[in-house]
Design a protein that fits this description.
This protein folds into 3 domains: 319 residues, FAD/NAD(P)-binding domain (3-Layer(bba) Sandwich), CATH 3.50.50; 42 residues, no CATH class; 132 residues, FAD/NAD(P)-binding domain. 24% of the residues lie in helices and 20% in strands. The protein binds flavin-adenine dinucleotide. It comes from Paraglomus brasilianum.
């Protein structure tokens, strides 16, 4: 990558053709602003429609690993076949199911969940369900004719850095007319149980090459699809694949044994849809953010059995229902077939007496208390994962040096080496970030050379000054600004973008309206008034 003699970074070639990966909230706005500025855009979306996480599905997807702490094991790169070799067809399956649950209401008001200069239809509820958000996104696609540049059912399996850009390899999933042959059937859907999941990465099944085609399952209809591979060159790539795909499930004493003994009695929030799908049994939900609060509330409102919520720390998203019993951090899970629960139960002994025939597991917390539960739901979040980025350092963070200047993802808690949370410093022609409208505008203006990035040295210096670990309580907090800081950040990016606007030539400056910030600041109280929680 070259630097000019001034303190600015210059791309080694002119950026004209840009690949956007993903057609969720981020990918759609990136595509629009890149088109607006006159660049040639292609969006690859592995699903059949736009909307990303806002596409609700009754399909709960494959069972994750318990524990799941390493993105490279839980979400390994998919093998790309060449004409001589073989390939496997499992990994796309894990990423395609949205974690949205049926009862979800937006946690911030819909007026501030919009792109700039757009709004939801009149009378839209302030805290809406997934259908409303999806419909807004689909209208945005229609209005801006984004379907002209989106290729659906295109799974990006490799992005390879080349001398003058990036080679993007996609797998097109085509629904087959006929069902698979018996031989094909043996090749598909390896992901059925924890036991099977654990084999991924160490015991991958190989499939004989058939003119770069392979058989996969995809989507919620159990239909069979044929994968066709294609490679295309781009000058730059914007990664908008989201970060609610790969469950994070911490390693806790006894968890593996519990999951092996009762695989159907442990799940991640990504697999939760509705309370009525579960038998009324004592349940422990782990995690105090939005999903943990919502899921424990929904279960407690339909169950007679106790619902516990294990909380590590209170965050702005914590919102515990009164009927939920709060517990501290779990120390260990105990697999026990004994039905004599008297010694163990602190909070629900009467209930346990009535249900002696059911083999409960036990959970011990760090305060020494022990409860009997039937089911555990981990609402412990997700990991950043970019398995298709080839040649960029992504891997298991446990032993990796996060001060390295090339590392992108380690344990999946955060993304490293991004300038202004957007541009990968070692090569700013790729942007693997979670993108808002302001960030998308910055990308389009930088790629179109309307504004310039500082030199690599200056970007590095700026990054280092905001990356000192002590500045953030947890690595994850690095991407979470809080409302006030988010406002400052958005204004900073827009000021930069606006510095290139020629108002005399009719170019309008971008504005971040202060009412959006005010509404965000008051969102929690507003939600409590509107929804009662
Ligand atoms: C349970 C839950 C509740 C939430 N509630 C709110 C809320 O109330 N308000 C709010 O503002 N935000 C909420 N969010 C955050 C929400 O995820 C973001 O608002 C936003 O939708 C993220 O958009 P995205 O485009 O970054 O990612 P996604 O929506 O995840 O979209 C990514 C897209 O990329 C595609 N893709 C992934 N990998 C590939 C590949 N290799 N090749 C091709 N395509 C690929 C996916 O199919 C998907 O369509 C919530 C998230 C969750 C999980």
């Amino acid at each position: 990558m070259s630097e000019s003699t001034t303190d600015y970074y210059t791309f080694p070639y002119k950026i004209q053709k840009v690949c956007v990966i993903g057609a969720g909230v981020a990918g759609l706005i990136v595509a629009k602003v890149l088109m607006d500025i006159g660049l040639n855009v292609t969006v690859y979306e592995r699903g059949g429609q736009p909307g990303g996480v806002w596409i609700y599905s009754e399909d709960t997807g494959p069972v994750p690993l318990f524990p799941s702490t390493d993105p490279m094991i839980s979400d390994p790169p998919e093998e790309v076949p060449d004409t001589e070799s073989s390939c496997s067809s499992t990994s796309h399956h894990i990423r395609n199911v949205s974690p949205i649950y049926a009862g979800l209401r937006t946690n911030i008001p819909t007026p501030i969940m919009t792109y700039f200069n757009t709004s939801y239809p009149p009378n839209t509820p302030l805290f809406s369900n997934h259908e409303v958000v999806l419909s807004y996104l689909k209208s945005f696609v229609e209005e801006h004719k984004l379907n002209d540049v989106i290729s659906y059912n295109m799974d990006v399996t490799r992005v390879i850095e080349s001398e003058n850009g990036w080679e993007v390899i996609t797998k097109k999933l085509k629904r087959t007319e006929n069902g698979p042959t018996q031989n094909d059937k043996q090749k598909i859907d390896l992901v059925e149980s924890n036991a099977n999941m654990e084999k991924i990465g160490e015991d991958r099944e190989t499939i004989p090459d058939d003119n770069r085609k392979d058989i996969s399952t995809h989507g919620s209809d159990d239909a069979e699809y044929v994968g066709e591979w294609r490679e295309e060159h781009f000058d730059a790539v914007v990664v908008c694949t989201g970060h609610y795909n790969v469950p994070y499930i911490p390693e806790i004493n006894g968890l593996k044994e519990w999951a092996n003994t009762w695989p159907e009695r442990v799940l991640h929030s990504k697999q939760y849809r509705r309370p009525d799908l579960f038998e009324d049994q004592p349940t422990l939900v782990i995690g105090s953010a939005a999903s943990g609060s919502d899921i424990s509330r929904e279960l407690a409102s339909t169950f007679k059995s106790p619902v516990y919520l294990s909380i590590r720390s209170i965050s702005p998203l914590t919102n515990v229902a009164e009927s939920v019993i709060v517990k501290p951090i779990v120390k260990r899970f105990i697999v026990s077939y004994s039905d004599n629960s008297n010694d163990y139960d602190d909070d629900s002994s009467n209930y346990i007496h009535e249900k002696r025939s059911i083999p409960y597991g036990k959970v011990e917390f760090i305060d020494g208390t022990v409860i009997n539960v039937h089911r555990i739901i981990f609402a412990t979040g997700f990991m950043y994962s970019y398995p298709f980025l080839h040649g960029i350092e992504v891997g298991n963070g446990k032993n990796e040096d996060v001060s390295k200047e090339t590392i992108l993802v380690t344990s999946g808690e955060r993304v490293y080496n991004l300038y202004k949370q957007v541009f990968y410093i070692p090569n700013p022609t790729v942007s693997p970030a979670s993108l808002s409208h302001a960030q998308a505008l910055l990308i389009s203006h930088v790629f179109a050379s309307r504004v310039q990035l500082p030199s690599l040295t200056s970007m590095r210096k700026a990054y280092n000054s905001t990356s000192i670990d002590t500045m953030f309580k947890t690595p994850k907090a690095y991407h979470e600004f809080g409302t006030v800081k988010a406002g400052e950040y958005i204004r900073e990016l827009l000021e930069w973008v606006n510095s290139s606007k020629n108002e005399e030539a009719g170019e309008k400056k971008e504005v971040f309206e202060s009412w959006r910030e005010d509404m965000h600041l008051g969102a929690k109280e507003l939600r409590a008034r509107e929804l009662g929680y």
